Every structure is written in C-alpha cells, then in structure tokens.
Amino acid sequence: MSVSRTPADVIQFAKENDAKILDLRFADLPGLWQHVSYPINMLEEDSFEDGFGFDGSSIRGWQAISESDMLIMPDPNMVFMDPFTETPTLVIICNIVDPITKQHYERDPRWIAQKAEKYLLYTGLGDTAFFGAEAEFFIFDNIRFDQAPNYGFYYIDSEEGRWNSGRADHNLGYRPRYKEGYFPVPPTDHHMNIRTEMVQLMEACGLNIECHHHEVATGGQCEIDQRFDTLVKSADNMMLYKYIVRNVAFAHGRTVTFMPKPLWNDNGSGMHTHQSIWKDGEPLFAGDQYAGLSEMALHYIGGLLKHSAALAAFCAPTTNSYKRLVPGFEAPVNLAYSRRNRSAACRIPMYSQSPKSKRVELRYPDPASNPYLAFSAMMMAGVDGILNKIDPGEPLDKDIYDLSPEELRNVPALPTSLDGALMALEEDHEFLTRNDVFTEELIASYIDYKMSAEVDAVRQRPHPYEFSLYYDI
C-alpha cells in the first residue's frame, strides 16, 4: 500500500484493477475514517494538486460553518483497492487543505503526524521513528444499547462468552474461562478462521502482518499484530486495520468493537505501542545500559513517563478507557519501567538481543485512540526526554500489583478519568507544541470537544448500576 507512486502511477493502477469508483478517505479528530466517493473518471493527474472540495463543518471537532469549505488532497503513495465493495473501488488516503491559503489544515490528524516526523528530522536526533501497535478487539455476535431520559442499557452477547455455558438450547461448550482466553486452540477459540480471513485481506491491501491469536478475555477477544513501520505509515495502517477487521466480522454476521473495556470484570483491549528511533539505517535505542538500552532510549522513557498524564488524553482518550486502566487486568496504572514486566507502563521486550530489536513498549494506550495523534504525542514526549536528558529513575522489576500501599506511594500513577487526563494535557503540553506540531488551537479544541461531547455527556447521565446502589436509599 505504501509504495512510492506518482499521480500517473495511481491512474495506471486504477486502470489495471478496472476501478470504477474513487473513494477518498481521511480521519476526523476522534479517529474515525470519513469518506466520499466519485466516478473514477473524476480522478486526473491534476486532482493531486487541485484536490476535491467538501464541507468541513460537518466533521466532528473541525471548524465552524462560516469557514466550512475545505479540500481533500489525495496522497498518491497511499492507495489500495477496497476488498469489500461490489464495484471495483480505488481508495486513496488523503490530507486536508484550506482552499484559500492552500495550507494544511491544523486539525487534520494526519498532518499532525507528518509534522511530528518533520520535527524529529529538525532535531537531528534521528531520521525515522518506528511504531508498532498491537491493537486488541472483541468480536461479538450481538450488541444492543440505548439511552433515553427514562432508561439506559447495553446488552452484549457472544456464542464464545463464558456466560453462555448454562444456556439450555444448542450448547456445545468450549468457551474460554474468564481471564483465561490466551492462546487456546479451536474449538475453544471460535474465531481463528475469521481472523485468518482478516489477515489475508490485510496482506492483500499491503499490510505486513506478524501473527494473530485469541486474547485473554472470554467472549471473543482477539489480536492481530502488524509489523512496525514509520510513524505516519503505521497510523495509516492502523486505520486500514480497523476497517478490515470491522468489515470482515460484519460480513460474517458479527460485530467488532475497539472499546477498551466492553466487558465488566474481564480483561480490556489495549494497544501496546512499540517505538524506537533510528538514524541512517542504524538503531539508536541499543546500548550497554539497563536491559540493553542506550542512554538515549532511557531518556526517551523518561520523557514518556514525565508526560504520561497528558499523553493519556490522546492514548487513553475515552471515558471507557479508565474502566480498563485498573489494577488486576494486565493494564498498567503506575508509571514505571521494567524489562519483561507487563505491569509497568513502559516495558522493554527481551525476546531478542539484536540491536535492531531494541525498543520501548508503552502499555497504557488503547485502540480507541486516534493513531495519528497518539503516535505523534508519544514521539514528542520521548524526544522531549532525549533533548532534556530526563532521568526515568530506577526500574521496577517486580509485579507492581503486589506492592504494599507504602511502596506504591512512591510510584506515580496515571489519571483515573478522562477529565483528569484532559486537565493534565491543559497544564502540560508545551512539549507537544514544539515547531507547531500540535498547535495551541488544536489542543484547546480537542479538550473542549472531549469535555463537552464525552466527559460531560457521560457524567450527566444516570449509570445503570447506580440503581442497584441507591434506588432504595
């Protein structure tokens, strides 16, 4: 998908694949793909310079109706054929441009990621930031939810869910126990064939897949791992990954969610993000320090840990994210680093001693993140750590969940809510605004959107469990 192409190459690619429809895609502020389709004859070489007009005021978190005209600018390097449409459809991932100034739109998440890559080059520290994200998700058989003034509910069902073990009709058993769903073979793993189909379509669209497997939770929790790539390409790839996962499940009469915590009292879905910096084809995170890391890598970790409260606003960006970030479910709460230890916010994988494999894994991000914003924010925090030689402190090579309350008092923790993370972002974002990678206006708009559309919207509604707690008071 990410091979280098000219506009003429794209038009030739469309002809070779008998494309009839052009589909232009871009990400909104929360991180969902949006699209508009045209007959393929609307695509010309000039289209990559002239763009396609649309109404930006109707996109979540974007600008006012008084300045709504915007341009979608196709990127000739990000092209694939849609594997789900009945009519052959050419998809191009795009950037957003102001039609008057011809400048990139500062709330376009993809442009922010591109600026982050440019900033790394500007610092001279490295020329490439690699990101490899492991997005988990649930495949359910049925989902119902609704909210009204006098009621609110959700109801999830999955043939694989352990809660169906006592069902009277057509019950064949073979369901993962709660918190014991990691790596079982079929028939306990109900979704191997669906995941394999997802992987085959991902590879056909240009993604590089390493493996797939069942995850820890019952009820259809899965993971498909992509190989690392550069920051922007990894974010593009994550958008395509989600699109394929959802549509394959949908074609099988099932539904997928990337919500971090859809099931109570079982593991949630994370997006553990591996990251490293390279220069001139050489890895810069390998050295003779702790866990085989370089001093640069340790300072990168120092930046991640120092800014984690603010990073959470982009990396754990929903009210539901903080249902996952609780002790006891393999989701890190405390801000420490360690080799191998999955209870630490930053883990240094030890599978290989090769310098090229040396990387940092940040474990609190989740797949509800906008990958363009999350990857960019993580890199900016890490680079800030390198530039300011931020000491990450001593590693914590023990299970943090087994520490005493007195020991835990010395370990910083993540915010416990989205509004806490947004407040931290408001107070600590100077590291993001270097070279206008994240603008002040973007950060303010993001905080306002999240507070009004999500934090306040959830806070103002009665929770179903409150009736169990308080109805008879």
Catalogue the unreliable spans: none
**Rg to the nearest angstrom?**
23 Å
Spell out the helices and strands N to C: HEEHEEEHEEEHEEEHEEEHHHEEEHHHHH
Count of runs of 4 or more consecutive helical residues? 13
Query: Can you tell me the overall shape?
Result: globular
Name the helicity range: 25-40%
What's the story with the biggest beta sheet?
A: 10 strands, mixed
By DSSP, the count of extended strands is: 17
By helix and strand content, what is the structural category?
A: alpha+beta
Strand content: 15-25%
Distance between the termini: 59 Å
What is the arithmetic mean of pLDDT?
A: 94
Features:
single chain, 473 residues, alpha+beta, ten-stranded mixed beta sheet, five-stranded mixed beta sheet, 13 helices, 17 strands, globular
Kindly describe this structure:
- The chain is of the alpha+beta class and 473 residues long.
- It is 31% helix and 22% strand.
- The protein is built from 13 helices and 17 strands.
- Strands 6, 9, 10, 11, 12, 13, 14, 15, 16 and 17 form a 10-stranded mixed β-sheet that branches. A 5-stranded mixed β-sheet has the order 2-1-5-4-3.
- Helix 6 (295-306) packs across helix 9.
- The N and C termini lie far apart (59 Å).
- The model has no long low-confidence stretch (mean pLDDT 94).
